[in-house]
Amino acid sequence: MLLLIPLLPLIGFLINASFGRRLSKSASGLVACAVMVLSFAISVAAVARLVQLPPDARVIDQTAFTWFSSGQLSVDLTMRLDPLSSVMILVVTGIGSLIHVYSTAYMHEETDAEYARYFSYLNLFAAFMLVLVLGSNFLVMFVGWEGVGLCSYLLIGFWYQKKSAADAGKKAFIVNRIGDWGFVLGVLLIFTRFGTLDFQKVAVAVSQLGPEQTFGTLSIITLLLFVGATGKSAQIPLFVWLPDAMEGPTPVSALIHAATMVTAGVYMIGRNAVLFGHAPMTLEIVAVIGTATALMAGTIGLVQNDIKKVLAYSTVSQLGYMFLAMGVGAYAAGIFHLFTHAFFKALLFLGSGAVIHALAGEQDMRKMGGLKKDLPLTYWTFVIGAIAIAGIPPFAGFYSKDEILFSAFSEGHTLLWAVGLLTALLTAVYMFRLVFMTFHGPSHAAHAENPSSHSNPSNHLHDAPPAMAVALIVLAIGSITAGWLGWGGRFQRFLEPSFVAGAGSVRPDVADASLETTLMVVSVVVAAAGIGIAAYFFLKNRAAADRLANTFSGVHRVLDQKYYVDEIYDAAVVQPIEIVSEDGLWKGVDVNVIDRTVNGVGHAIGGTAEVLRLFQSGSVRAYAASLFLGAVLVLGYYLWR
Amino acid sequence: MPTLNDYLILSAILFAIGTAGVFVRRNLITILLSIEIMLNAVNLSFVAFGRSLGSADGQVIVFFVITVAAAEAAVGLAIVIGLFRHRESLNPDSFTSLKW
């Protein structure tokens, strides 16, 4: 049964990839959505069966076949369902289905072939993502890991005729490659150290050891794995690809670059919680990097004007939160935030997609404004998403974010908590800045600016069509209610068995109720303050915002230019490589050494042949003479030696 | 009775005559004949050595040489005829290129 979950989207991919050209849009859309919904239904059934089991025995394995076996390494293609992967498959298939349905409307202007191509990629992505989260060992996970990277590349560059989209796809792929390099090295090291790649066996082997106090093998392994996570989950220093990835279609941004693929790094750390738990130094690094990323991306998000860029930086920032949770050992809280974030971030992306769709591809928030009246459904769902991410109870984001901040504080990372709180403030500010700039205030757009490129017959703003509306409404409900699952720590207790090796040894609940309440109030106040700040600057007094930007023009410029990270990488990595490649390797080594060697060999052979051909006169008697002479010489040598 | 040395001297003289013939004559058939003389010079020294050592090996080898020489002569003369048909000439200096 578990095998069917990734297999169904794969079948959808095969159908759309092979016959998509000949299928009508509704047919290929139907196939793609049907396999996802079916996969979701099976996932729900599987999880329902899992929940029947007693908490300590909640593992369902299904082995398809032995993938390969060589020496002491034997790798099975095994799907494993446990609490952690059950959360992931529900997110991937559930939100994935909604986004598939949404896409049927969003991509409607593509030709039949392009439409089928889009859905085949989307199905393929879902299949790989499910392999990633269901795989029971590092190699099967790696198949999914690489597969989602491929689909991300294909979908970012979906409009490949646009150079910026093609470039963004390449950037995402190459940056991910750097992370994958670390991941592979980590996996190899795990094999040499433990002789197995199965998650559970590794966890059991690790739990025999004590926590590593000095910087040793476990720390190196976990650090390498974390390098992989920074690539896939867009953390410092490898986050640069995610904002550019917004060149892809918006539903893709929602599915891959907000809800599922970018959380793979968080999932991977959660999956190896025992391993990471035995490397406290790595965990420290994970927490610090996560927090730094959250703050950095949050500040950049404050000043961006592209609606999708704001959401992209917001995603990076929220992923930073998840890594903070992982780093302080609050794995359940991190996964909980992953779960709630999937709802409200997908909702926000899809909402922004509805806006972009209505405005014929316009993404600049400065040209929007006053859309509240024309797009009521989009507006209200979007506001729900924004409140959820800002962290106002009883919306989803509040519970998970609060859980993370509380964990950070109670584990003694006060500084990280403070930065996290500051980031929460920034989150509320940039998110409501987006809401106010887009939906409130005066209408800036001559709304059908670009009617020719958009088949909008009535030539006026239209709210989300039914397929999009359904997705928005369901996700909005999820954004409100998803957090309630965590009420009283139920979600955390459900997940806990996934983070320990074997049975038992669940961490005792150290929650200090009064402290928790205090921190909760603080974070709600901070979130409300953030909304207030955004309301003041972008609703009541827009001029004040511009004044502020002018007063601190230096800061504003640095933020607007994203801390010049791209430029720094360009100067520090890309340019040196280009210079070394061009002047050193090409004009130096290739032209002067390799070409000269090859040509030199040719010339030498030619020259030798010029001399040797003199001997080939064609005269039989000359040959006979030289033969005779040679025989005489050899004989003479032996006679007179 | 002639000694082994006498036979070897005769063989050397015959071989020298054959070699000189190969070098100086300009007729392919004569050259083939000279090669035959060289072969027979060697044959002579083989039987002479065989006789002097009291072994039949030398004579056995001579039989082989005669057989191969017959085959060689057949092939060689066939080639000479083929060449003559092309060039109306038996001078080896007219045949200096591999194809024409």
Task: Summarize the topology.
The complex is a heterodimer of chains A (641) and B (100).
Chain A: H1 4-19, H2 25-52, E1 60-70, E2 73-81, H3 83-106, H4 112-134, H5 138-156, H6 163-194, H7 199-207, H8 217-232, H9 241-244, H10 250-259, H11 264-271, H12 273-277, H13 280-303, H14 307-327, H15 331-358, H16 376-390, H17 396-410, H18 414-439, H19 466-481, H20 490-495, H21 513-540, H22 542-551, H23 553-560, H24 565-612, H25 620-639
Antiparallel strand pairs in A: 1-2
Chain B: H1 4-24, H2 28-53, H3 57-87
Helix pairs in contact in B: 1-2, 2-3
Summed up:
Chain A is mainly α. In chain A, 72% of the residues lie in helices and 3% in strands.
Main β sheet profile of chain B: none
**Average of the residue pLDDT scores of chain A:** 89
Query: What is the number of independent domains of chain B?
Result: 1
- Mean pLDDT across all amino acids of chain B: 91
Helicity of chain B, as a percent range: over 70%
Low-confidence stretches of chain A: 446-459
Radius of gyration of chain A: 30 Å
Please estimate the helix content of chain A. Answer: over 70%
Report low-confidence residues of chain B grouped into runs of 5 or more. Answer: none
What overall form of chain A do the CA principal axes indicate?
globular
Query: How many strand segments of chain B?
Result: 0
CATH architecture field of chain B:
Orthogonal Bundle
For the record, give the distance between the C-alpha atoms at the N and C termini of chain B, rounded to a whole number: 56 Å
**Classification by helices and strands of chain A:** mainly alpha
Which chains make the largest contact? A-B, 8 and 9 residues
Question: What CATH first level of chain B would be assigned?
Answer: Mainly Alpha
| Strand order within the widest beta sheet of chain A | 1-2
Rg of chain B to the nearest angstrom? 17 Å
